[in-house]
Amino acid sequence: MKRLLLVNGPNLNRLGVREVNVYGKGTLATLETEMKQEAEKLGVELECFQSNHEGVLIDIIHEADDIYEGIILNPGAFTHYSYAIRDAIASISIPVIEVHISNIHQRESFRHESVTAAATTGQIVGFGFYGYKLALFALMEKLREA
């Protein structure tokens, strides 16, 4: 059975409370439950992880290379300035799909650039929680092609 990792970065533990007009009312727990159920339908195991700390996210990305077949990653605000997370993604051999709940290109100008995207297999933005499912489907397709 394929094993995948869902990684959520800073402030995503506040889903359902933080800026519900942007991120919706769904919680991180709801998102993780829905994603695990969707993965199960596809016959894959999905583990979920969240951290507000850059170094912890870098460590989990590095460790994932030896444990999982792919990563779905929402780096949160680190998207816009963390060259360290970008380099961590570039250093691993498994595919990474970057996902964002909101359309980062329609928000404040400082959110328009993703320094991490160039190191990923692809990026999905603006589809709410459904974007995570799209990332799962895209990741599964990428693994089938390999």
TrEMBL record:
EC supergroup of this enzyme: lyase
UniProt cross-references to PROSITE patterns, sorted A to Z: DEHYDROQUINASE_II (PS01029)
Site (Transition state stabilizer): 18
Reactions accelerated catalytically: 3-dehydroquinate = 3-dehydroshikimate + H2O
Keywords per UniProt: Amino-acid biosynthesis, Aromatic amino acid biosynthesis, Lyase
Residue positions binding substrate: 74, 80, 87, 101-102, 111
Pathway note: Metabolic intermediate biosynthesis; chorismate biosynthesis; chorismate from D-erythrose 4-phosphate and phosphoenolpyruvate: step 3/7
Domain of life according to the entry: Bacteria
EC number(s) stated in the UniProt entry for this protein: 4.2.1.10
Active-site positions on this chain: 23, 100
A single MF term (Gene Ontology): 3-dehydroquinate dehydratase activity
Family annotation (Pfam families): DHquinase_II
The protein's assembly and partners: Homododecamer.
Family as reported in the entry's similarity comment: Belongs to the type-II 3-dehydroquinase family.
Protein purpose: Catalyzes a trans-dehydration via an enolate intermediate.
HAMAP family referenced in this protein's UniProt entry, alphabetically: AroQ (MF_00169)
Protein name (record): 3-dehydroquinate dehydratase
Origin species: Bacillus arachidis
